[in-house]
Every structure is written in structure tokens, then in C-alpha cells.
Amino acid sequence: MLTHSTNEQAARDTLSFFLYFQLLMASKRPEKTSRWYFGGLASAGAAYCTHPLDLLKVLYQTDVRNNVSMLQLSREIIRDDGVTALYNGVTAAVLRQLTYSTTRFAIYEIGKQSEFGKDSGFFGRIVMAAIGGTVGGFVGSPADLINVRMQNDVKLPPERRRNYKNAIDGIMRVWREEGFRRLFAGASSATARSVFMTIGQLTFYDQAKLTLFETGYFTDNIGTHFLASVIAGGIATTMTQPIDVVKTVMMNAKPGEFNNIGAILRHISKLGPIGFFKGFVPRFIRLGPHTVLTFIFLEQLRINFGVLKDSQ
């Protein structure tokens, strides 16, 4: 009994020392802010790590079968095309983040660090995130289009595949074969999704982190970053799921397949209201890790390579 109590006391002492050490290190660490391009680099790294999950999410949303599962889809892909097929379209995914996420993070970070942003509060950050998401969504539309198409090639018969060599080849072929405007097919839904995604991820991440700091139990460390990013990922997934389904169907459509947005909505609604949330769980399984990795990478870039606040 005495040994058990001694072990419990030792465990409590160890935990107390660890928390004290974390607080001490956080207090001594110089406060830094992100550079404008850190968000794009962090998002690109996260996209590469989570690409197989994103590919399965796209295939699941465009599959018309009601009883297909994520596990079944992954088995079919590996059986027919091998394990490397899970990284089909990864160049487009990385290019998309380097255009879309670099733009939205840059606008948000620059706005947040401006005189207006420093005193704007939560709702001011929502406005900055909405502006960043609007511009970023439009800028990233061509790479997003190629990303969806390259991922969807996996489930098409060989004779119907587009077979883009990489993201740049895909963009050039769409421009040459379908016209420049086709590169921005689905730009409206992609931009709307980007607005809600940026608000859900960036604004709510900052708010969650601030709320955790205010409790007094959390410091500027990887554990806090992880918890705040999980919260942001859940909110962002819920806010953007219906828009993401519409965007995926729109971008994957053949020229002339749908006359307008109403035709796409009718096509999705054949599965009922749940059709607009098809793939919610696999999307969170993908977006959750992507959001966590993005902010962990971003925070590590900020802590190690950021700009000292005093030098701004």
C-alpha cells in the first residue's frame, strides 16, 4: 500500500515538473509571427501526407453506388492499379495548396498583423478570413480542377481516362482542348467552399488556441496546437461539406453534362438530403489530419523561422 502511494506521488511530481518546465520554456521563448508564405508551405506538406485520404474522399463522393464503403473503394483501387494509385494526382494537390493556401493564409496573416487586425477581435478575423478565402479559392481553381480529375481517373476504364502526366500538363491540356475558361469550371463553388473553409480553419483555430491559453492550463506548445487544430478541423468540415460535394461533382463533369447549378443540385438530391453530406466521415478523416498537420507544420515554421514581434 505504501509503495502504491509512493508511486502515485512520484507520478504527480513528475507531471507537475513537466508542466512547470513547459510553462518556463514557453515564457522564455521569444514571441514570433508567421511569414506570409508559411501557410502555403505547411498546407502543401500536409496535402502530400494526407493525399490518399483525399483521393478516397473524391472517389466516394462521385460514386453513384449507395452501398459502397471507403474500405471497398480502397481495395478496388489497390487491386486494379496498385498501391501507388493512391497518390494519383498528388502533384495537382501540392500545386493547389501552393496557390490556394498560400494566398488565403497570406491575406489572413497580413491582415491579422496590420493595425486594423490587431484590434479587430473574432469578427474582424472572420472578415479577413472571408477575404482570403475568396481570393484563394479563385486563384486555386485551376489546380483544384486538375486535382479532382486526376484523382477520379483511377476509377475510370482505361479508354476513358484523361491520363494527365502531372498538374502542369493537365492545366495545359485543359486550356488547349477545352478552352481557358474551362480551367475555372466550378470556381464559384470552390470559392464559396474556400470562404467557409478559411473561416472554419484559420479563424476558429486562432479562437480555440486563445481560449485554451485563457484557461491557464495550456501554453504555446504542440499539444495546444494539436487540440486547437482538431477543433478547427471539425468546424471546417461541418461548414463546407455540402459545398464540397457540389464542387466535386461540378469539376468532374464532362462538358455539357450539366446545364446549370440547378441540374447539379438535382443530381445530388437523388440520394436525398443526405446526398449533400455524402462522404462526411471520410472527409473529416482526411480533413482532420490535414488541418492538424497544417497547423503543426505552420506553428513549427513560426517558432523556428518566424519574425520576432519586436523587429516588425
From TrEMBL:
Pfam families: Mito_carr. It is a multi-pass membrane protein. The keyword Cytoplasm does not apply. Solcar repeats lie at residues 34-114, 120-211, 220-304. It is found in: Membrane. GO terms for cellular component: membrane. It comes from the Eukaryota. Keywords: Membrane, Repeat, Transmembrane, Transmembrane helix, Transport. Belongs to the mitochondrial carrier (TC 2.A.29) family. This is Mitochondrial dicarboxylate carrier.
